[in-house]
Amino acid sequence: MLEITNLHATVDGKPILKGLTLKVKAGEVHAIMGPNGSGKSTLANVIAGREGYQVTEGEVRYLGGNLLELPPEERARAGIFLAFQYPVEIPGVSNVYLLKAAVNAVRKARGEPELDAMDFLKLVKEKMKLVQIPEEFLYRSVNEGFSGGEKKRNEILQMAVLEPKLAILDETDSGLDIDALKVVADGVNSLRSPERAIVLVTHYQRLLNYIVPDFVHVLAQGRIVQSGGRELALELEKKGYAWVAPHADEGK
Ligand code: ADP
Ligand code: MG
Ligand code: MG
Q1: Where is the ABC transporter domain (predicted)?
Q2: CB 219 within 8 A of CB 38
């Protein structure tokens, strides 16, 4: 589904990703772990096509095509969803309005008919149960005045409604108490499917107790320096990142 080869990327002219290679197949859940500032959010933003990130070398293929040629909105329509580390507030735009516009844009791109108000509400209420968000949230401005945990849940709701093929969750666990973490994890787990790939970016092992990944990768100094199964996350928790990070410059 996603094939990243020797990816180099800069932010404001500063090299951040320095030869990152990663393959993700449909049905898989990958965790990307790594020290602060190692480039995890940069990777997520480059895949989503966010402004300000320049790819200087390497390749990103998505469903067999060159992802880097697509503008961000086309990436979203092609089934890529990014849940941000810091979800944005959009005063004056209701949650329900944004969700409906987003879901119908994706349906249109897939050649499916748009949902009318009734069918949309049915879908969104079903998904709200899944992520345990009260219905009043629908009519509030997007993320405005939401607590950290509510914002994260709202991101999971967006993901549940949009049914992406490739979901990237950037530190969806940060700032969550244990109950909110479980709700978010249940929501993500309920979206696991053979047709969908999920990439979890996380600094801590904790989330991976609830969302058990198929693969764990360590990103350090702009590259994947170690890959393994779930046990790698447990080992990192015990030994810290210094255990793998010193190898980051090898082979340059
Ligand atoms: P992580 O998510 O792993 O903590 P980031 O991808 O956010 O790491 O950041 C990687 C590096 O890029 C850091 O050194 C950070 O300071 C730098 N960086 C990120 N965004 C910007 C920006 N907009 N301008 C300049 N430097 C940035
Ligand atoms: Mg960070
Ligand atoms: Mg980050």
Answers
A1: 2-246
A2: yes
